[in-house]
Design a protein that fits this description.
The chain is α/β, with parallel strands linked by helices. The protein folds into 2 domains: 11-255, Rossmann fold, CATH 3.40.50; 291-549, no CATH class. It contains 23 helices and 21 strands. The protein has an 8-stranded mixed β-sheet with strand order 3-2-1-4-5-7-6-8, sandwiched between helices. A 4-stranded antiparallel β-sheet has the order 10-18-14-16. The chain starts with 10 loop residues before the first helix and ends with a helix. The structure holds S-adenosylmethionine. S-adenosylmethionine is lined by residues 18-23, 47-50, 52-53, 76-79, 82, 103-105, 122-123, 125, 136.
Length: 551
Amino acid sequence: MDCFDSVLVSEQSKRQAYGAYYTPLRVASLLANWAITNRNDVVLEPCFGGCDFLEAIRDRFEVVDQQDFDSHIFGCDIDPSAFLHLSSRMRASTLTGNFLRGDFLSMTPRHFGQTGFDAVIGNPPYIKNDRISSFQLESIKRLTKETTKSIKGRVNLWAYFVAHAMSFLRAGGRMAFVLPGNFLTADYSAHLRNELSSKFAQVTAISVAERLFLSQGTEERTVVLLCEKYQQGNARPINVMYCSNVEELGNLLVTNVGAANNIPEIGDDYSRLTNEQNNVFSGVAKQINAGNIGKLGNVYIGIVLGDKKFFVRSLSEWKEESISDTYIRPIVSKFSYLNGICIRTYDIHAWKLADMPCFFLNTRGKRLGRIIRNYLETNVKHAEGSNSTFKRRDIWHQPDDGRIADAFIGCISHFGPRLVLNSKKIQAANSLYRFDFFSHVSNIERKVLAISLIATFSQLSAELQGRPLGSGGLKLEPKDIMNILIPMDTKKTAAEISIAFKEIDNLVRCSRHEAARLFADNFLFGTIITKEQQKVLCESLKRIRTHRHRE
Ligand SMILES: C[S@@+](CC[C@H](N)C(=O)[O-])C[C@H]1O[C@@H](n2cnc3c(N)ncnc32)[C@H](O)[C@@H]1O
């Protein structure tokens, strides 16, 4: 076994270890057709995997009347099974030494016997920085200064591929990559984007709404990156374009790349507000005496379980293990299991009836009988060995920190954040945030916060604080939540607030999110802000969300 084989090898784990999601041929063909402009071009696919790009490159060369594939197509991949695809999908005549097995990040054009390439195209592996293997991190350390200049922070593996690919290009060369949505949105991509625009005469990023990798089990959004004329950079901002599906992508590639001048640029307000919308937002903030959520309480993460499947199960699963109810307590294991803006008794009944994994093992203060000891024994090796979370605990099988939060907020949301009052005093896992009110905040003020967060003004504030994810969701860090603006006082009576709270809770439970939002707007601000201001707030939220979802 060499260092490559020692990376996990089962099909499923290989996908994660190698970031092996293969591009559909119809997409690879569009990129190959765009990138190869001349029959004499020499092209590299730096991680050819399932070989769709190689096939597309070969087809393109046939169209431009180039049959001598050996002198024009090169590739590499770290995964031995990519070479099985190579022998089954490419003609024997193309199976020359042009295809190297190994780590692209350790290679230079010389490994392929070339001085440079006219085009580099492909779909690099997407692997989060903290999951990059140690051997891969070693080769990253050896990358040249020129390459690492384009990288700042803890980037995903794809960013290293894009940066390194530049060093393979001849002057005037082209790059075309299929990248995840966070090329446009992640903070860590900003530096690379700037570097690309300083190195190429023209950089275009096309965000594709159709999820291209659904059949391979990921909802990752795709951005097609097209870079033209290497070393003729003029620091022109990246053109950002959008399309709904592969067909539209094809049309754009043929007709329109580079002509997207009416599309807002990166760093500009393409996912933000116009000046007019900003003015209205600030004006409303003053009128409603807005302050941030941090004035009312504190956000902190749910309990860290260390092994969710071991600690959290459905009631029938605990029964199967013969674990008695004495050791089981309800837990919110996912924010999406919470339906309204408070937890009701029947929510917990519903979890039981639907046999949802919402019950966790709690041995704190309990005598450990034989059955429970046997169950713990099944995980004891894990407990004594590699699990660092278990090691940090006084008693490894007691994850509950005993802090029962006043409310919960999701870390990632599709529609926008929601505060759910923890009326049933249950525990939450670390896939969501817990929220504790300061002691001076009354019960009725807590309800007002839950209502306020649903309203358009605070939803908009949350969009401005949070970060859109490649999947289209909105990610909020604890500090983002603390900074969300809400109205600081309301002239409503306790009875009015309770009625509105109940109504909004019902609407949210029926997934009538828009109706709930408008109800909250009317209740809180109906007599304070003008119809025109309300219209602008709604349009602003729509604009910012459409950019986030891009569906
Ligand atoms: C997202 S897949 C894309 C495969 C192919 N380019 C396509 O679009 O169908 C990423 C590929 O990168 C390969 N890979 C991962 N790490 C690599 C490395 N360090 N050097 C070369 N290839 C690598 C994986 O084996 C996988 O085939």
